[in-house]
Design goal:
This protein is of the alpha+beta class and 1049 residues long. The protein is 48% helix and 14% strand. Its EC number is 7.2.2.10.
């Protein structure tokens, strides 16, 4: 079957051809070529029961023969590509062109004309040697542009690298269950090889192609590959082909891995898409490719090789958004920033255009009218130089005015927060979710594992007519009933669920798999009945049929075939549902007796309700015999199959509330966030847990209802859901019990679409099941459980809770609010600089026919304002004080009244200082005036002091900008933010070097220590003035300043 080199009996090409077949065609090929699946296993040298032996040599040989389960990464953008992208900024292009013209003209001097004949401003004052240095300004501008471009490109590069690293983190945690050397283990998806026996279960996202060996009620969603939304039923006899990238929607089974990586069906399509994208242009290719890739189950790329279930990254390196983007609106911050950026951009363009127009007009009037200079074509190069100079001033005004730093500040703040949130057990998959969470007004949370510990134990039992408030002893239960009880637990729990011995002495046993099933298995062990012995006697392969648990059935049933031709079915499920299907119950003797309606009602009242009121999950265990004489039942008729059961026992399972949850919920309520519990448990259990958590408190008149009642109340007489009917319920609803995923979706949609409250609700939802996908996608922020969550739920989510803990959601709220505040701090700082710089340049143009702040200086200010300030102010750590206020909401202005007061107040101080220095500085400081300097005049001490004072005021005002809610102590926590301190000191040091050694390129003259002291005192004055501004009540601004930047509803 294999050659002497150790190759396998089935080639890579054969397996690829096999996986292209479907349905009966694939079954026929398997029978014709291999006899059955076991024959294919033999050729691949694996055991359908024990799997591969797992030796390193064998795994390496398989990877060499059939490939690894990774996709080759798509090349990230190179640094040069990012530089080119940054160079394409319109304002920088204009600046570059103007600088090049200025540079070219500075080397040209008309030979036949005296510069004085072209007007006062053209010459006469400047020596030839100084005029020849005119090239310095153009060269300095070009150098500044290069610096800005390099910084922008580096930021983009590091941002993309960080997001790829985040995506890598997500994928490195993806594991899958396989059988190796007879042991069921979990390995990284990238380590799966052809020949592995993989266990598939409800909620899995298949990482490879495979052939089904054994299946239980297996249904697959193949829409990601085929586009067909109907679930495909898989079985060994009819359609055994399982494809990578598809979702297991129901059931369980085992498959033989037959294709991995680029050789799987998804890998083949991905390779075709990648090849197609290379032929497209950059922009079109990226957009087109992203849309195509999303249709192929969102496969993606990384800096390293990519495991099969990665999502694509967009052109900024972010994980690609979910398929159904229409269900999500833009984040609160995005809406407000988009509007604000447009407003500032328009104002900046207007001011820069006016600046250029006034400069040109004043020059023309002064030269040709006031000085009466005759027109001369020989003076054209001089006039063009002036025109270029005016254009440079105008463009630099635009550069400073346009908030280019906003996207960078948002990116830095989000990326920093995402990195820190990982430590708080929040793995953020979509960046905007981080900020949106800060505006959350409602959280719809699951109960199990999120509010509770998800460590379940059976604490109460009703069996053979006795209600035990503790656990019964072995001798308390008749042997026949004990056999039914333990056999039912052993075979009717997923074989992947098990109890392992404690890792440490005195520790608790480890629960692997479904926690409810683990509680039952643990109960069996406490009765000294080992479930493994039962499973060894009845292996999973011998099970005749399995009806797996789903949200519709609310139960699980397993059918065994007996040697005499009869069948026995064991069932377990929600007690109030399964008891209705029982017509018999075990008596104290262990025999089955009739279970009539009166007895059922008594049991509900005396057993089920007391258990549920204590917060216990109640599970009914039952069985049913199908005699051989009755013939084989119709197994597809579930209604008939799951009727006339015999009740074996009812157990009460305790899942303690996490000790930190009540405090976390109290913080949410204090922060203006309503917490609702949406659970599949019965209403009594849900209400008891809600009271323990603090969702329901004594004396509050809030609603608790089950899914059936909820559906009845939200639908009209035609059975259609009406928003008005939902609006009557959701504001007071706190607990929704026995809810289906559809109920959860309808509730979330109803809250989001509601207009009953003044503010649009921002809803966060937790989910762990496959069917929670729609609700997770519909929510503003979807949280998936990292431990108990299925792959499908994780894919639909925005944030993964790596510890499944509700308190981690509170941390997400805190970080989200911190992002919003960080952006607001940056805005407060930037807009102050914008207002002052633009007004100074504009008035300078109007009055002195020049800008007091030169182009290179303004580019330096722009660098401080954009890159450094965004990094400094966007990296503040969150505090508990963030949870003491209500959510901002979608309609609250991004620039609050307090922020507007601070911006205007500090702008007044800075303008007063700057204008005093410009127009009276030479008198006050006893220095030569720098006003009305001719073209190519050397730098002056006067304007150097103006520039230095302006920058120092911004540096100290950066400290003021740390507080945006009127706090007086702007130094609070400053030493905790190392990045802020380093940037502040670094900027100050750079400013000293620029002034003292910058010379002509920066239009600076070295200052003496007295002049530095004056500049420093004026800069420090910003801090003192900040205390004055803080004393002014913000409410007074409301009458003076009209709120701006309201987001569209």
């Amino acid at each position: 079957m294999k050659d002497k080199e150790g190759h396998f009996g089935c080639s890579l090409q054969e397996l690829r051809s096999l996986m292209e077949l479907r349905g009966e065609e694939s079954c026929a090929m398997i029978r014709e070529q291999y006899g059955d699946v076991n024959g294919l296993c033999s050729l691949l040298r694996t055991s359908p029961v024990n799997g591969l032996d797992g030796t390193v040599e064998d795994i390496n040989r398989r990877q060499q023969e059939y490939g690894q389960n990774i996709l080759p990464p798509q090349k990230p953008k190179t640094f040069l590509q990012l530089v080119w992208k940054a160079l394409n900024d319109v304002t920088l292009i204009i600046l570059q062109v103007a600088a090049i013209i200025s540079l070219a003209l500075s080397f040209y001097s008309p030979p036949s004309v005296d510069r004085q004949h072209c007007g006062k401003a053209a010459g006469g004052v400047v020596e030839d040697s100084e005029a020849e240095a005119g090239w310095i300004e153009g060269a300095a501008i070009l150098l500044s542009v290069v610096c800005v471009v390099l910084v922008t490109a580096f930021n983009d590069w590091s941002k993309e690298k960080q997001f790829r690293g985040l995506q890598s983190r997500i994928d490195q945690e993806q594991k899958f269950t396989v059988v190796r050397a007879g042991h069921v283990i979990q390995i990284l998806v990238s380590e799966i090889v052809v020949g592995d026996i993989a266990q598939v279960k409800y909620g899995d996202l298949l990482p490879t192609d495979g052939v089904l060996i054994q299946g239980n009620d297996l249904k697959i969603d193949e829409s990601s590959l085929t586009g067909e939304s109907d679930h495909v039923k898989k079985s060994v006899d009819n359609d055994p082909m399982l494809l990578s990238g598809t979702h297991v929607m129901e059931g369980s089974g085992k498959m033989l891995v037959s294709a991995v990586g680029v050789n799987s069906q998804t890998g083949i399509i991905f390779a075709l898409l990648a090849a197609g994208e290379e032929d497209d242009s950059d922009d079109a290719g990226e957009e087109d490719g992203k849309q195509k890739k999303e249709q192929v189950d969102n496969k993606g790329q990384n800096d390293d090789d990519v495991v099969m279930d990665m999502r694509p990254l967009n052109e900024d390196g972010q994980p690609e958004k979910k398929k159904n983007l229409s269900t999500k609106t833009k984040s609160v911050l995005q809406l407000k920033l988009n509007k604000l950026t447009m407003q500032i951009g328009k104002a900046g363009l207007l001011m820069s255009s006016l600046t250029v127009l006034i400069l040109i007009t004043r020059f023309l009037i002064d030269t040709f009218w006031v000085q009466c200079v005759p027109w001369s074509s020989n003076c054209m190069p001089i006039y063009v130089q002036f025109l270029v100079k005016f254009l440079i001033i105008g463009v630099t005004v635009l550069v400073v005015a346009v908030p280019e730093g906003l996207p960078l500040a948002v990116t830095i703040s989000l990326a920093y927060s995402v990195k820190k949130m990982m430590r708080d057990n929040n793995l953020v998959r979509h960046l905007d979710a981080c900020e949106t969470m800060g505006n959350a007004t409602a959280i719809c949370s699951d109960k199990t594992g999120t509010l509770t510990m998800n460590r379940m134990t059976v604490v109460q039992v009703f069996v053979t007519g006795h209600y035990y408030k503790g656990l019964p002893r072995l001798k308390d239960i008749p042997a026949s009933a004990m056999d039914l009880l333990t056999t039912g637990i052993g075979v009717n729990c997923a074989y992947t669920s098990k109890i392992l011995a404690p890792e440490k002495d005195g520790g608790l046993p480890s629960q692997i798999g479904n926690k409810t099933e683990c509680a039952l298995l643990g109960f069996s062990l406490k009765l000294d009945q080992h479930y493994q012995a039962i499973r060894k006697k009845i292996p999973e392969e011998s099970l005749f049929k399995v009806y797996t648990f789903n949200s519709e059935r609310k139960s699980m049933s397993t059918v065994l075939y007996n040697p005499d031709g009869s069948y026995r079915m064991f069932s377990k499920g929600a007690s109030e549902i399964l008891l209705l299907k029982c017509c018999m119950i075990l008596a104290p003797s262990g025999e089955a007796i009739p279970f009539r309606t009166r007895k059922r009602k008594e049991m509900m009242k005396q057993v089920i309700e007391p258990m549920a009121s204590q917060g216990l999950r109640t599970i009914c265990l039952a069985y049913k015999d199908f005699p051989a004489a009755d013939g084989e039942p119709n197994w597809e008729d579930e209604g008939d199959i799951l009727s006339n059961l015999t009740c074996i026992a009812v157990v009460g399972i305790e899942d303690p509330v996490r000790p930190e949850v009540p405090e976390a919920i109290r913080k949410c309520q204090q922060a203006g966030i309503t917490v609702r519990m949406v659970t599949g448990d019965n209403i009594s259990t849900a209400r008891a847990i809600a009271c323990k958590c603090g969702i329901l408190n004594t004396g509050e008149d809030f609603l608790c209802m089950d899914g059936k009642e909820f559906n009845r109340l939200i639908r009209n007489s035609q059975g259609e859901i009406e928003q008005g009917l939902i609006d009557n319920i959701w504001p007071n609803l706190r607990v929704l019990a026995r809810s289906s995923p559809t109920d959860k979706y309808n509730l979330v949609k109803g809250i989001i679409d509601s207009t009953v409250l003044e503010k649009r609700q921002v809803v966060a939802v937790t989910g762990d099941g496959t069917n929670d996908g729609p609700a997770l996608k519909k929510a503003d922020v979807g949280f998936a459980m990292g431990i108990a969550g299925t792959d499908v739920a994780k894919e639909a989510s925005d944030i993964i809770l790596t510890d499944d803990n509700f308190s981690s959601i509170v941390q997400a709220v805190k970080w989200g609010r911190n992002v919003y505040d960080s952006i607001s701090k940056f805005l407060q700082f930037q807009l102050t600089v914008n207002v002052v710089a633009v007004i100074v340049a504009f008035t300078g143009a109007c009055i002195t026919q020049d800008s007091p702040l030169k182009a290179v200086q303004m580019l330096w200010v722009n660098l401080i304002m954009d890159t450094f300030a965004s990094l400094a102010l966007a990296t503040e750590l969150p505090t508990d004080a963030l949870l003491l206020r209500k959510p901002y909401g979608r309609d609250k202005p991004l620039i609050s009244h307090t922020m507007m007061k601070n911006i205007v107040g500090h702008a007044i101080y800075q303008l007063a200082v700057i204008f005093t220095l410009i127009y009276h500085g030479e008198i006050l400081l006893n220095i030569a005036s720098g006003r009305n300097a001719p073209l190519h005049a050397p730098p002056s001490v006067h304007y150097t002091i103006v520039f230095n004072t302006f920058v120092l005021m911004q540096i100290f005002n950066e400290i003021n900008a740390r507080k945006i809610h009127g706090e007086r102590n702007v130094f609070e926590g400053i030493l905790k933010n190392t990045i802020f301190c380093v940037i502040l000191l670094g900027t100050l040091l750079a400013q000293i070097l620029i002034v003292q050694f910058g010379g002509s390129p920066f239009s600076c003259v070295a200052l003496n220590w007295q002049q530095w002291l004056i500049c420093a005192c004026l800069g420090l004055g910003s801090l003192l003035w900040g205390q004055v501004v803080s004393s002014i009540p913000s409410c007074g601004c409301r009458k003076v300043i009209k709120p701006v930047t309201r987001a569209k509803k």
